[in-house]
From TrEMBL:
Residues 40-63 have a biased composition (Polar residues). This is Nitrogen assimilation transcription factor nit-4. Residues 253-330 form the Xylanolytic transcriptional activator regulatory domain. The keyword Lipid metabolism does not apply.
Length: 632
């Protein structure tokens, strides 16, 4: 025991709250005080939201609808069960049926006689690949190269594949339970986006074709295997969703993400399956893999929800699965980089599971609020109360992160790359929470006559987080390389760039200069990321198009890499359109086709005529004084 005075030891351990946390609490107090004042002035009538309000604390079911393995089962209990049940079908797979389905009453669910075994489906897929000459042969050296990239840069952030079990199955047992041909093809197809190897491209001169052949092979196998999906099918489909977004095929990526979630529901991965381990229906490894895959799908669903602004497939009340165990080996495995920009960086522990658990917690804190606020029909006071409450929750979440998940206090010392990604998402959540209430002021209808409202707490929060995002990209680029960053980082840079672009119109010269410096960092980051992810180029073109429509200064144009006299119409036509559906023989064709103003589905409006409907487009991002929800 230490002999120092107890009071002194306490002082050393307790850190004062951050300035940002104090400001968030102050804003929350002001909102609540305003509510109290309004309530006191009313005649007793109060606005009350539905009991299922998103402001309620999240909770998961304590008891799952796991069938009783005893010889006696109460019919009353079965019929009154509200959650449904996991059942084993004739195909040997576990299936989930909700309480509204009568199949939930059966221990063993009947499967149609036409159901084909997974082995037979794999054989049919292999035969088709041979007939169509789509089978891809990968050397051991190239396969190991791609797997190393996958484990280091992709799987540590969007954790979907358990490395130890995958490699054991791939090299030793060959059971297909953890490393099926479909999953291997999907892993390699996505990992190819991180590689500069020419042999991975269908067109040696086009970087955007890396992994195309592997992806086509995976899609063909999935066509058959989706008839009787397994856990590896879920994993592969989720990875294909990311891979399609990488080539800027957002509709297909979105569809694969939804397929993965539905397959996971079908297999009951969203439920606590510990009872099935106790009764011997599944092994402990199978249960843990299922848990990891479920939460991987959950994170992917929320990332798509934020990145595309579309509804989530997965809702909180449906989940009873436990979070991945902290005893999992991935938490304690070392991490090292093979970065081409310097000496390898080695961390004794990856803290991968801790990062996943915290990412899930972040989305639980923020996703429902971000879903409700944009289209909410509630009164302004209720929305402001929700904004301040959620903001305080985010800051508390950030403060309470374990030390292993905090950013390094020194810019000279690197942080694990997947922890950088977590902090990017924290700041994106803050921006999206406050952005609808950032006010703008204008003198005329001229597009260059507006600037952000001064004194807005919402703008201040957006600005702080945007500069933090810029700083994280600068550090990631310094210690690693943006050639090796997961695709979800693109939306973070895109979101922050829009706020910084607005700040370049500020009347405060210091704010303007600081915004331009950070905007330049993000524009360069989007350019660097486009080597792996075509979606990044699309985001950069979008920001440049907004810069033209907002008629920002020449300095802001320069920060975005827009050369003086560059043809604005060409960029405008490019950004309005959607990605052209290319066949493999036209992979080097233009990525953009003009098909209307709503094709670019990222919550950013674009002009298709020479006129400027100010309220129609700026109002979707920010508000003028007098708009509902304005903070000015």
């Amino acid at each position: 025991m230490a002999n120092g005075p107890p009071a002194q030891r306490v002082i050393q351990l307790v850190r004062p709250p951050s300035k940002r946390y104090v400001e968030a609490l102050q804003e929350r107090i002001r909102t609540l005080e305003a509510q109290i004042e309004r309530f006191q002035n009313t005649t007793g009538t109060q606005e009350r939201g539905p009991s299922s309000s998103i402001e309620d604390n999240y909770s998961t079911s304590e008891g799952d609808s796991i069938p009783d393995d005893s010889s006696y089962r109460s019919p009353i209990k079965d019929i009154s069960d509200r959650l449904g049940a996991l059942n084993i079908g004739e195909d040997g797979q576990i299936h989930y049926f909700g309480s509204r389905s009568n199949f939930s009453l059966l221990k063993n669910s009947p499967v149609a006689s036409s159901t084909v075994s997974s082995h037979e489906l794999q054989k049919q897929a292999a035969d088709t690949l041979d007939q169509l000459n789509l089978r891809v042969e990968v050397s051991d050296e190239l396969r190991n190269h791609l797997l190393d990239l996958f484990w280091s840069w992709q799987n540590t952030w969007q954790y979907l594949v358990v490395k130890e079990l995958f490699l054991e199955d791939l090299y030793i047992t060959h059971s297909g339970r953890y490393a099926s041909p479909l999953l291997l093809s999907a892993v390699l197809a996505l990992a190819a986006r991180y590689s500069d190897r020419i042999e991975l491209r269908t067109d040696p001169l086009d970087q955007n074709t890396a992994g195309n052949a592997l992806a086509e092979q995976a899609k063909m196998i999935l066509f058959y295997e989706s008839q009787a999906p397994k856990v590896t099918t879920v994993q592969a489909t989720a990875l294909l969703g990311l891979r399609e977004i990488a080539t800027d095929k957002e509709a297909l990526g979105w569809m694969y993400c939804g397929m993965a979630a539905r397959m996971a529901f079908n297999l009951g991965l969203h439920l606590d399956r510990s009872h099935w381990v106790d009764t011997g229906h599944i092994t402990k490894d199978e249960a843990e893999v299922g848990t990891i895959v479920w939460w991987g799908c959950y994170v992917l669903d929320k990332l798509f929800n934020i990145g595309l602004g579309r509804p989530s497939t997965i809702q909180e009340h449906e989940i009873s699965a436990k979070l991945p165990s902290m005893e999992h080996g991935a938490e304690y495995e070392s991490w090292h980089s093979e970065s081409p920009i310097g000496e390898p960086i080695v961390f004794p522990r990856s803290h991968q599971v801790s990062n996943v658990r915290s990412t899930v917690q972040l989305f639980r804190v923020t996703s429902s609020a971000l879903d409700e606020i944009p289209g909410s029909q509630h009164a302004k006071s209720r929305i402001m109360e929700l904004v301040t409450k959620t903001h305080v929750n985010i800051i508390e979440f950030q403060i309470n992160l374990p030390s292993c998940l905090r950013l390094s206090p020194s810019p000279l010392a690197p942080t694990l790359p997947h922890i950088y990604l977590l902090h990017l998402q924290i700041h994106v959540a803050i921006i999206l929470l406050h952005r609808p209430f950032v006010g703008v002021q204008r003198k005329t209808l001229d597009p260059g006559s507006f600037h952000p409202s001064t004194g807005s707490s919402h703008l201040k929060e957006c600005s702080q987080s945007s500069h933090s995002i810029s700083n994280i990209f600068r550090l990631y680029s310094k210690h690693y390389t943006l050639r090796r960053i997961p695709i979800s980082a693109i939306h973070c840079a895109f979101t922050a760039s829009i706020i910084l672009l607005l700040e370049t119109t500020s009347t405060d010269s210091k704010d303007r200069d600081r915004a331009m410096a950070s905007l330049k960092v993000l524009a360069e980051a989007l350019t660097d990321m486009s080597a792996a992810w075509a979606w990044s180029q699309r985001a950069l073109l979008a920001v440049r198009q907004l810069a033209r429509e907002w008629a920002v200064s020449e300095d802001a144009f320069s920060a975005l890499g827009i050369r003086k006299g560059e043809d604005s119409q060409a960029t405008g036509n490019a950004i309005i359109g959607t990605t052209q559906a290319l066949d493999d023989n036209e992979a080097s064709s233009s990525l953009w086709v003009a098909e209307g103003p709503h094709c670019f589905d990222m919550d950013i409006p674009f002009m298709t005529s020479d006129g400027l409907d100010y309220q129609g487009w700026i109002g979707t991002l920010f508000t003028e004084p007098g708009y509902p929800g304005d903070a000015a």
